Amino acid sequence: MNVPIEYFVLLSMALFSIGLFGILTRRNALMFLMSVEIMVNAANINLIAFALYHGNLTGQVFALFVMALAAAEVAIGLGIILVLYRNFRDVDVTVPTTMRW
Amino acid sequence: MEGLFDYAPAIALFPLAAFVIALAFGPKLPKKGAIPGIVATAGSLALSLAMVAAVAGGEEGYYHTTLFTWAAGDAAGEVGEGIEFTFGILIDPLAALMLVIVSLIAFLVHVFSLEYMNAEGETGLPRYYAGLGLFTFSMLAFVYADNLLMAFMFFELVGLCSFLLIGFWFRTRSAPSAAKKAFLVTRFGDYFFLIGVVAIAATFGTLQFAGDDSFVAAAEAAIDDGGQLFGFDAETWVTITGLLVLGGVIGKSAQFPLHTWLPDAMEGPTTVSALIHAATMVAAGVYLVARMFGYYALSPTALAIIAFVGGFTALFAATMGVVKDDIKQVLAYSTISQYGYMMLGLGVGGYVAGVFHLMNHAFFKALLFLGAGAVIILMHHEQDMWKMGGLKNKAPVTYYTFLAGALALAGIIPFSGFWSKDEILYDALIVGTEQPLIMAAYAMGLLAVFFTGFYTFRMVFLTFHGEPRSDVAEDPHPVGWAVKFPLIALGVLAVVAGVANLAPVAKLTGLEIEFLNEWLSSGVEGTTYVAYTDALAAVYDTGYIGTESTTVLIAAGLSLLLAFSGAGLAWKLYNVPEPVAHKERLGSVRETIESNYYQDEYQVWLAEGLTLPLARAADRFDQTVIDGTVNGVSSVSLFGSDRVKRIQTGIVTNYAALIVTGFIALVIVLGVLGGWFL
Amino acid sequence: MTNGPQLRLGESLLPGILAVALFGVMAMIALNTGFADEMVGFPEGISVTSEIGYALFDFTALQSTEGSIGNTEPFLVSFLLVAVVLDAALDAALVLAKRETEGKPIAALSSVSTGDSASTQPAATDGGAEDGSSRSSGGEQR
């Protein structure tokens, strides 16, 4: 109970940056999805830590919602990856380059 | 009687209906649209006469109503309330008189056209009658307009119609160019008129001609206040705006230096010339001055300029008329000269005299033009006076009516022109005794009387007297009733119209016979002759040479003497069986006058030597600097976006990297600004 | 061809510097922020889990008076919304995952075998034209 809030925040930031690192460097769509999950959970850690910090349950409840949304996001993400694979025979995110000028 | 006024809009709407009918059904109608035109103008004439009766018999003596408000703004003027733009009708004695003149002339011109145009087998007659209808409509609506903006709109419409009709024979080389010239020159004047309208609206917040909320009343109040308007003395500002409006008048009424379009306008059919010169286009300018005379009466400077321009134009144009060989050209210069007289009359405060001359001139000039038209029919479309001669016995009706018009034009007693011209000169003289500038204008006007007498009778003698000088003059084409009826009607008017205001006789005998004076002394308060006289008393001092009676006699005697000597000189030189040209005696002056004092040349030089290079420079500036800037901006942005779009690779990772970069930059900026790193 | 996830090193790690930099900046900010040393925490003797449950379903009466969240009705709305979103996500995932054979939609979870994976049709939902080989094989089967 005596861990200072800074550490939670740092942990959260570290997780977020790790997720971001994955997104920036990996090319596999599944890795992308996992990285996004890590970032979402970094946010969750923040929410819960500050719920404890302020003695307010709202953060905790919100973390639950975020988890539900993450599940939804994964469902969609996997669907997109499936389509991606069907169209390009690959899950490499650098292969589809039609989103451009 | 008062109920008659409800039909006032129909005066102008009849010719408009004729215009629509001639345009839509003209080719199928038996006379190609002449009948609707004649019926419509006859209806207008009847209604106008009814208006005169109603004005004379009504209790108020005028009729003023707003028909339609098409913009009511809150924009306040320098003085006054929010501006309202309306269409309205103002029929006071002046407007009623002018309505009768215009519809009468238009009616007679329509009748005359039956022979002049239809019988000659012209093509495009529906277009001709549609033009006449629209012309008459515009002028009538202009005459009874109750505010300056409506007047301006119909003023412009009149200009457009003159363009259409002068260019009626558009397949010739000269007619389209004459039409363009008339349009452009008058438009140059109208440009100032438009600025004047805007200035008056912005200053006084109203454009009404008459009544308590008129701009005239507002201007008077502003001058009495002694305040400043747009940084000028109220009176100076009134002068400026008045002169701006006068620009339109000078263009339309063919005053120096914008008179050059009028002689060229002779390219149109003679009937159109009659309409333009007697009743519509050219009269519109002088009528406008009379209409807002109360405004000019507030500004001695504007009045003096009007008087001087008028006097100068009268002399200037008269000298040019002396050497012309084309019968219509002579008449054209006489028109310019006569409108100069009207301007002189109005400028010296002779409101009644100016309107009186406007009326008389409408009759005798329409008569002369229609007479010239008859001569042209007789001569199988030959207009050179040197090929005529001896028509006196072969066409007596034409001769005697033309002679009546000529006598009126020359100002020979007792024809109508004498009375009005004499009144103008008398008014100029009594003011001129106190003011040298007006005296100069008077002198020029007086001198012009001599030239008028000379060129008028030179024209008469060359056309009708002597021996026939060509084959067609030996055997002229006969003319029918459609020519004779208008000529006789106008001939009678030219002889007797002077009775309307026998001012000299009234002054000498003390009889109450100045009918026009009384007629114009009623009407809307502030726009009557009485009110103008009061206003002018502050502007002009008048003086007599000896007593009033001697002054009257001197003025009349001088002008009569000059008119007779001019006519006598013409008699001596040209009333011989075989007249010869005497122009060579004029020596070097002849060339100057025959070239119209090089007015066209200098205006062309202004256009080509000054305006054209200026326009070229402006065009070059536009092409290089402005277009260059615009093109430069667009090519820079094109080039820039062509480069920048390359960062849109379509690879998701790069987009994410860009977003993160942006986010980091944002956080750093906010952090530095907010002191988060300390 | 399906490739297993490969760890790529070298230049491809370069954008990762951004992530590291972001972490550095954010950490600096976090460390410079003067947080209070002590956390407020939750009151002794209440079950956080059950409190969350009561809050989620807006059971105000059951919440402990001390440390309760208070007006929790919006949570109920959010809860329902999340349920709807999850449903929608499920349906969307099914739609995205289904494939078409002979013009008939084949459900992703269908037990009917459609042959080996090599002959599956690419769904023509977007610009699949980039991959020429799969297009051409599909074209022959039609």
TrEMBL record, chain A:
Alphabetical UniProt keywords: Membrane, Transmembrane, Transmembrane helix, Transport, Ubiquinone
Membrane-spanning intervals of the chain: 6-24, 31-55, 61-85
GO cellular component, one term: NADH dehydrogenase complex
Keyword Metal-binding: no
Membrane topology of this protein: Multi-pass membrane protein
A biological process term (GO) from this entry: ATP synthesis coupled electron transport
Molecular function as annotated in GO: oxidoreductase activity, acting on NAD(P)H
Cellular location(s): Membrane
Source domain of life: Archaea
Flavoprotein listed as a keyword: no
Record-linked Pfam families: Oxidored_q2
Gene3D superfamilies, sorted: 1.10.287.3510
Cross-referenced NCBIfam families: PRK05715.1-2, PRK05715.1-5
Family membership noted in the UniProt record: Belongs to the complex I subunit 4L family.
Full protein name: NADH-ubiquinone oxidoreductase chain 4L
UniProtKB/TrEMBL annotation, chain B:
Transmembrane segments: 6-25, 37-57, 94-116, 128-145, 151-170, 191-210, 272-290, 302-323, 330-356, 362-379, 399-419, 439-464, 485-506, 655-677
Gene Ontology CC entries for this record: membrane
InterPro entries given in the database record: NADHpl_OxRdtase_5_subgr, ND/Mrp_TM, NU5C-like, Proton_antipo_N
GO biological process, one term: electron transport coupled proton transport
The keyword rRNA-binding is assigned to this record: no
Pfam families, per database record: Proton_antipo_M (PF00361), Proton_antipo_N (PF00662)
Start and end residues of each NADH-Ubiquinone oxidoreductase (complex I) chain 5 N-terminal domain: 82-129
Membrane topology: Multi-pass membrane protein
Compartments where located: Membrane
Keywords associated with the record: Membrane, Transmembrane, Transmembrane helix
Keyword Protease: no
GO molecular function, one term: NADH dehydrogenase (ubiquinone) activity
Name of the protein in its database record: Proton-translocating NADH-quinone oxidoreductase subunit L
TrEMBL record, chain C:
Annotated Polar residues bias: 110-123
Annotated TM spans: 12-31, 75-97
Annotated region (Disordered), positions in chain: 108-142
Keyword field contains Membrane: yes
Source organism, top-level taxon: Archaea
Keyword terms, alphabetized: Membrane, Transmembrane, Transmembrane helix
Record protein name field: NADH dehydrogenase-like complex subunit J2
The species this protein was found in: Natronococcus amylolyticus DSM 10524
